Amino acid sequence: MSGQEGLVVALEANRPTIQASDGTTYLGLLRGKLRQTVGQVLVGDRVRFAPTDPGEAVVLEVAPRRNQLVRPPVANVEGMFALFSLVSPRGNRELLDKRLAIAHLMDLAAEVAITKVDLLEDPSPALALKAVYERAGYRVWLVSAVTLSGVQAWLEGSRRGIWVLTGESGVGKSSLIRAALPEATVESQGLSRIGRGRQTTRTVRLWPFGPEAWLADTPGFTQLSYQVADRRQILAAFPEIAAVRCRYSDCWHLREPGCEVQAAVAAGQIDPVRYRHYCQLLDEWYQPRR
After folding, report:
1. The domain containing residue 264 runs over which residues?
2. Half-sphere exposure in the Cβ direction for 201 (13 Å, CA)
3. CATH of the domain at 11
4. Based on the domain organization, do 179 and 263 belong to the same domain?
5. Ramachandran bin of 105, using left for φ above 0, alpha for ψ from -120 to 50, beta for the remaining angles
6. Last residue of some domain: 62, 86, 107?
7. 129 and 191 in one domain?
């Protein structure tokens, strides 16, 4: 099929904005049969299109999707940034570990960004948390949207594909995007009087994030539950625990006698909070087939 290839970088009223390989953008239109076949085109879709009037194009084909997120509605996601704040508001480690586990289960790359480090009088808690997640195999960034500390290093990390942000309200998703990408028109409000963030980002838009990556400016990835029929999937989502070899091949590292993982937790080699969350997710997410 003839036409050009492009990426849907924004969507408004089901009209996609398509960016071609040369950087030119077009306002796209899906016609009858394709609309019935595909339904709604998503930000992140790879499409084939044909320019019509100046600045406009008709979509000819939508390529098969690698994946599709519901919240935010983005296709072909490669990675997730899990944002976490130690102050104003203080984050919930359980939610952080759930997000990272879901990224693994969805076959997404994941990195951790500890935000608002400018508000910490003592940096040692942030450094200790950084060490915990680096031992688990994640890249961890300490960033401030106010002083821009760590932002340039975060931007220069080598990545490919579309990445989404995830984190609790008030963690600073929109502020970090605005600091890192001044061209991104992201509105942000402060925290409410009860200390909880107000979500202000309403639409989905992709912004260049390095030579081969895009950052999705969205309200944030919100999925916090999952179901698995194989407990090994949950174990694999905690790589530092999965790496420990117990004497028994069928050990699930809960209350088994002689468990090497429990010994490693007691010795401080595995973070006890991460271990507790692993045990919780085994209970919450494991649904054996009947």
Report:
1. 231-285
2. 25
3. 2.40.50.140
4. no
5. alpha
6. 62
7. yes
Q: Is residue 110 part of a domain?
A: yes
Beta bridge partners of 254: none
Let me know whether 40 and 164 are in one domain. no
Residue 177 phi, psi dihedral angles, 5° rounding: -60, -45
Identify the CA nearest to 90 among candidates 119, 123, 130. 119
Q: What is the pTM of this model?
A: 0.88
55 burial (CB, 10 Å; 0-12 / 13-18 / 19+) is exposed
Query: Is omega for the bond preceding 89 within 30 degrees of 0, making it cis?
Result: yes
Burial class (CB in 10 A: 0-12, 13-18, 19+), 279: middle
Q: Same domain, yes or no, for 171 and 121?
A: yes
Q: Distance from first CA to last CA of the chain, Å, rounded? A: 46
Cα 290 to its chain centre, rounded Å, is 32
Would you write out the chain's pLDDT as a tens digit for each of its 290 residues?
A: 578 999 999 988 778 999 999 999 999 998 878 877 777 899 999 999 999 989 999 999 999 999 998 878 899 999 999 999 999 899 999 999 999 999 999 999 999 999 999 999 999 999 999 999 999 999 999 999 999 999 999 999 999 999 999 998 889 888 898 888 877 654 443 333 334 444 444 468 899 988 889 998 776 677 788 899 999 999 999 999 999 988 887 889 998 888 999 999 999 999 999 999 999 999 999 988 76
The answer to the question of residue 290 being in a domain is: no
Q: Which residues pair with 74 in a beta bridge?
A: 43
For the chain, helix, strand, coil in percent to 5 are 25, 25, 45
How far apart CA 189 and CA 256 sit, in angstroms, is 49
Classify residue 85: in a domain, yes or no: yes
Residues across the chain: 290
Same domain, 41 and 125: no
Residue 35 CA to residue 41 CA, distance in Å, equals 8
